[in-house]
Amino acid sequence: PPPPAAAPSEDANAGLARALRASGLAALEDRDYERAVAQFTEALKLRPDDKDSDLTRLLGIATDLRSRGQSRTAQAPTPRELSPGRAPPRTRAAKLAAARAAREQQSSQATPQEEAKGGLLLVTSTPPGLVVLVDGRAMDLTPARLPVSAGTHRVVLAQGERRLYEETLEVEAESVRSLNRDLTAELTPAASKPVPVPVAAVVPASPPTANAAPAGGPVASARTPEPTTPPEPSVAKAAVAQRGDLEVTSPGLYGEVWINGRPYGFPPISAQALPSGPAKVEVRVNGEVKRRMTVEVEPGRSTRVRVK
Predict the structure, then answer these.
(1) How many domains does the chain have?
(2) Pairing of strands 176-182, 302-306
(3) Core-most of 6, 143, 196, 245, by most CB within 10 Å?
């Protein structure tokens, strides 16, 4: 027998990576940026080849937050004190200059305090790449790190014109509020049910019978059979024979697959029972067409399409 595959180990790594990602998001909410960087780094070590993961972006966000916190601590203004040997100003011009310097120092100290009154909104999703709208305004794609003012904000996750999720969040001053949602089910198109096609009923024709008279006697009238229409082929079988399937993969571009103007979700997808003939295949990212091609759907067969 062939050696057992390494699927259990890969599944274990995927589960541990998800746990480390969740721990990193919790650390971001607690403003523990050192721990967040460590958790995201360990998760990336377990899943280095996962192109659909947003761990790289999350690690960058956590590293940036840690750097900002360290620079803010290093650049904190220290109060200016008069040296013991310097005498207080006595002339009017000196007093005005000292008062102007004090006002400038107060204004420079007030600016960081006013900027610190806002909060930070961290929005992630599965799959990534969804549009984040805050209070009706498109801000960024998930995963997104958005500085917002303290207060209540309406956050919407959308794909093109479709609003997939909405929630009202309360962001406190100098805090990090995170929102993470798995919207895979909302992005998967429902399987279309086959429409029953009426089949014409065919009545079998009964063989004609004739009553033969004895030899030399009068010939009895034979019963003439009623005319019947010849059997027609099944309409349902003909309709099925004129349809085919498409299997679309897109390893180099992550976007939503549209076939003949209809969304089919994110690759890999399997579009079944498509009309035979040319089919228009598009890959859209945030509603914008990035790839477009025409594929011939062969009746009764499954055609594989690879988008580069």
Answers:
(1) 3
(2) unpaired
(3) 143
